[in-house]
Amino acid sequence: MAAELSEARAALAGVSNEPGAPKPDPIVKGSNITRTFGGLKAVDVEHIEIQRGVITALIGPNGAGKTTLFNLLTGFDEPNEGDWSFNGKSLAKVPAYKVARRGMVRTFQLTKVLSKLTVIENMRLGATGQRGERFFSAAFKSLWSSQEDANTTRADELLARFKLDAKREDFAGSLSGGQRKLLEMARALMVDPELIMLDEPMAGVNPALKQSLLGHVKSLRDEGRTVLFVEHDMDMVRDISDWVIVMAQGQIVAEGTPKSVMADQRVIDAYLGAHHDTDITEIDVADLEAEAEAELVAEAEENKS
Ligand SMILES: Nc1ncnc2c1ncn2[C@@H]1O[C@H](COP(=O)(O)OP(=O)(O)OP(=O)(O)O)[C@@H](O)[C@H]1O
User: Fold this and answer.
1) Is ligand 1 within 6 A of the CB of residue 64?
2) Is the separation of the CB atoms in 199 and 231 below 8 Å?
3) What is the pLDDT of residues 62-117, one digit of tens each?
4) What is the pTM of this model?
5) Which fold has domain 2-115+177-304?
6) Ligand 1 binding pocket includes 40 (Cβ within 6 Å)
7) Domain residue spans in the chain?
8) Ligand 1: which residue has its CA nearest to atom 27?
9) Minimum-distance ligand 1 atom for the alpha carbon of 43
10) What distance in Å separates the CA atoms of residue 283 and residue 61, rounded to the nearest whole number?
């Protein structure tokens, strides 16, 4: 595995820094992907390739289109046009839960763990792929008996790996923000994905858990998976990425190793320069907490009615 990893990284050494640069062994390949909201072109990607077996970071200013691109690639949204493939097979119009079953799974900026289910129940449902919360809630009772035995062993192994085994019977709603991120990552692994896509894994995570989260992300790569993550935390990007893709205004504007990208004038102009005086992490935490609270209140209201 170690030899494969260094081979995958070494292969990146010869890749050009131009947007959409071809990779030696792409697991994802997409072309002419666009998504507009009203008059706004949120995503306008001419070409993108994600190298297999390494960690790629997707960075860019707020509103650059990173989450929208994630949504498109994983079947949570539909593009105006464009096609993309995973392991050489087109994924356009394939629904999210089927994308997950093919081996491409994503987590969310605001975690989608179900707070009124226990940690182990959340894990078992992860084995069904991702169908969204409504599906999970509605289908939970009927799936329960058939899935109970089949997936429990794998779920318990993953909980131990992510140090959540002590929380097994707790409601997911009682977990801290960082523990929810870990649970979501663990749950995504229930389908044993080849590619795992993490949307802002560090947002809302306290410093003590950050190191452990970084270690977990690296271990995903070290066991042979491909990792693609969106992140504003530049320390994390610098620390663990093998490759960085930069988006601004829906387009890919630069690519390269973390070192070369952070020295790239186009990136400094489009992103890093603009955030020079701002503590991005603090902004994200406040936003996230407010959104998470609103989500919980809405959920409670829904359950009342
Ligand atoms: N459902 C939607 N309806 C209307 N506009 C949307 C929708 N989703 C995203 N947008 C807009 O598309 C643009 C890209 O948003 P997106 O969330 O993909 O950016 P991002 O790079 O992930 O930003 P951030 O770093 O803040 O999460 C933004 O201008 C956003 O307001």
Assistant:
1) yes
2) no
3) 999 999 999 999 998 999 999 999 999 999 889 888 898 899 998 877 667 677 88
4) 0.82
5) Rossmann fold (3.40.50)
6) yes
7) 2-115+177-304
8) 62
9) 14
10) 13
